[in-house]
Specification:
- The structure holds two protein chains of two kinds.
- Chain A is of the alpha+beta class.
- Chain A has one domain: Phosphoribosylformylglycinamidine synthase subunit PurS (Mth169, Chain: A, 2-Layer Sandwich), CATH 3.30.1280.
- Chain A contains two helices and three strands.
- The longest helix of chain A is centred in the C-terminal third of the chain and has 16 residues.
- Chain A starts with a strand and ends with a strand.
- By secondary structure, chain B is of the alpha/beta class.
- Chain B has one domain: 3-Layer(aba) Sandwich (Rossmann fold), CATH 3.40.50.
- In chain B, helix 1 links the parallel strand 1 and strand 2.
- The longest helix of chain B has 20 residues.
- The mean pLDDT of chain B is 96.
- Classes of the chains: A alpha+beta, B alpha/beta.
- Chains A and B meet through helix 1 of A and loops of B.
């Protein structure tokens, strides 16, 4: 099964990359209140059900894909 | 006997030879150890994780290097009280491996910073700072893009209370929380710092202050081997 992981900087964590994007968008004339930059990881995983796939990917996030001190994540199984 | 230090080489390490050179210049038997090894050389008294860009800094700095085969041996060594020093990328790896608290984030300026900085040594009663005076100012170079140490506020308070925030920048170059440049683990045998002591062991190269940290480490290895053989 295919899963997509969205990793984001947690609320309140300084995100200088997001700030740079935000400033650039403003320079282009877009009215942007805030921009935050995260990361997308697409994984294909052997699993019999969506629940099993979700559990496996959740474990991947905990062990490697996200650092819980600074990042939150969402998992979407397709 | 010369104190024996293992300098770990990851794919993408680039200060491994500098660290080895500096340690040798200070009297150590410093050996390079490839990341795919599963054991540290017999008689290793200290481990140094050098700077660089291990595994291309993919995902997050240090996040992949943490899974290198040698890291299991390093974690065991640290758990048994062995001395481990991580500089720059080595610091990032130790944080990702959970051997040190916190994490290194991109510099607030997003710029790669390469220059001398001044740091303050908070304590001298550690194996990494015994040659320094408490409050001593050291000038050591930094060269990093992701050196802003971060930990949640409550953890920072706890670490500060336990004296684990060992080095602090005089002027914060990268946005690190609480001006932290170097951190000690709770048991006092693992330390990481963003500045590069191995690049500051000879006044000809601008500063010899980094030698105080490396020589402190070698003193500690010598002291421990005396205890072990007596």
């Amino acid at each position: 099964m295919k899963a997509t992981v969205l990793v984001r900087p947690k609320e309140g964590i300084l995100d200088p990359q997001g700030q740079a994007v935000e400033q650039s968008l403003r320079k282009l004339g877009f009215d942007v209140a805030q921009a935050r930059v995260g990361r997308v990881v697409d994984v294909e995983v052997d699993a019999a059900s969506a629940d099993e796939a979700h559990a496996k990917v959740d474990e991947m996030c905990k062990q490697l894909l996200a650092n819980p001190l600074i990042e939150s994540y969402e998992i979407e199984v397709r | 006997m010369k104190p024996k230090v293992a300098v770990v080489q990851f794919p993408g390490s680039n200060d491994d030879h500098d660290a080895q050179w500096a340690l040798k210049a200070l009297g150590a038997d410093a050996q390079l150890v490839w990341h795919a090894e599963t054991e540290l050389p017999r008689g290793t008294g200290a481990v140094v994780l050098p700077g660089g860009f291990s595994y291309g800094d993919y995902l997050r700095c240090g996040a992949i290097a943490r899974f290198a085969p040698i890291m299991d041996a390093v974690a065991r060594f640290a758990a048994e009280g062995g001395l481990v020093l991580g500089t720059c990328n080595g610091f990032q790896i130790l944080c990702e491996a959970g051997l040190l608290p916190g994490v290194l984030r991109p510099n607030a300026s997003l710029s790669f910073i390469c220059r001398d900085v001044a740091v303050r040594v908070e304590r001298s009663d550690t194996p990494f700072t015994s040659r320094c005076e408490p409050g001593q100012r050291l000038v050591v170079p930094i060269k990093h893009g992701e050196g802003a140490w971060y930990a949640p506020a409550q953890l920072v308070e706890e670490l500060d209370a336990r004296g684990q925030l060992l080095l602090r920048y005089e002027e914060n170059p990268n946005g690190a929380v609480a001006d932290v440049a170097g951190v000690l683990n709770e048991t006092g045998n693992v330390m990481g710092l963003m500045p590069h002591p191995e690049h500051a062991v000879d006044p000809l190269l601008g500063s010899g202050d980094g030698a105080l940290i490396l020589a402190s480490l070698l003193d500690a290895v010598r002291d421990r081997s005396l205890v072990a053989t007596s």
